[in-house]
Design a protein that fits this description.
- It is built from eleven helices and six strands.
- By secondary structure, the protein is α/β, with parallel strands linked by helices.
- It folds into two domains: about 70 residues, lambda repressor-like DNA-binding domains (434 Repressor (Amino-terminal Domain)); about 190 residues.
- Strands 1, 2, 3, 4, 5 and 6 form a six-stranded mixed beta sheet that branches.
- It is elongated and about 85 Å long.
- The protein starts with 7 loop residues before the first helix and ends with a helix.
Length: about 280
């Protein structure tokens, strides 16, 4: 979904909220006019509108154009600065390259095979934060919801944890859009299987173990109808979008995998998957 698209909830929130900028200008306009000893009639004549329009502006009921706001500010000797802050976008869209798309589609397909319900690129919005959950998977039998973040590489584990944490908090409400009623929410980080990823996990073994204590074997068990440890914890596994193996969730080398990674890094995967 394009960042310029608005969900029904966003549109309702925008329409149902009185702009704070309008309220602020209404208050400042009235207070400054009174301090200067100007009547609404004199101010209206100075800026070329009716007295009634000035009254509506000061009550916050009018929606003056920027041109009129500028004229009023000039007449009252106001200095106005318009500050625009961009939203906080979680999960940069530039990650959605061809390799990421292959990994996302692959995980989606492998989860649907045993009967999980899935949704990809699920948009979530909260205040100024805007993000997309790569993949949601729901098992109606166990009422388990898996929040899945897919990466082609990992360089900042703390950023990934914060991102997944937000998705976890938003997941139950997001699941309701699809009519899902989860009793348990599980989070997974699926990373493209590369030498680069293995090296990162090995170099940060202790931190990774605390942040993502569950690994491929336990995650595979959950997909095929097993139980998730009662203590919980997030899961980490690697994936190869070309693999047709039944055990499609791959262990890291530090977890005991002996075979080499199928790719060197993201660039290698892009070349080979394109070929």
């Amino acid at each position: 979904m394009s960042p310029t698209c608005f969900t029904p909830a966003m549109i309702q929130a925008i329409r149902g909220t009185e702009p704070p900028l309008r309220r602020t200008f209404a208050r400042v306009c009235r207070e400054t006019r009174l301090r200067l000893g100007l009547s609404q009639e004199r101010l209206a004549a100075a800026v070329g509108v009716s007295r009634g329009h000035i009254a509506r502006i000061e009550l916050g009921r009018a929606n003056p154009s920027l041109d009129l706001v500028t004229r009023i500010a000039s007449a009252l000797g106001l200095e106005i600065d318009l500050v625009a802050r961009t939203p906080v976008i979680i999960g940069a869209r530039n990650q959605r390259d061809a390799v990421h798309a292959r990994c996302s589609g692959y995980a989606d397909r492998r989860l649907r095979e045993p009967g999980w319900l899935t949704a990809r690129e699920v948009e979530i919005v909260h205040a100024r934060s805007h993000g997309w959950i790569d993949l949601l998977a729901f098992d109606p039998t166990s009422a388990t919801l898996i929040v899945i973040e897919i990466k082609t590489s990992v360089h900042d584990l703390g950023e990934v944890e914060r991102q997944i944490g937000w998705y976890e908090r938003s997941a139950p409400g997001v699941a309701a859009r699809f009519g899902w009623r989860p009793r348990r929410v599980v989070s997974w980080l699926l990373v493209l299987a590369t030498d680069e990823t293995d090296a990162f996990v090995r170099a940060n073994r202790d931190i990774v173990a605390r942040a993502f204590p569950r690994r491929a074997t336990e995650m595979s068990g959950l997909v095929t109808g097993g139980t998730w440890p009662a203590v919980g914890g997030r899961g980490l596994a690697l994936i190869d979008p070309r693999s047709r193996r039944r055990a499609w969730l791959i262990r890291c080398r530090s977890d005991g995998r002996r075979s080499p990674a199928p790719f060197v890094d993201h660039a290698d995967a892009a070349r080979r998957l394109a070929a």
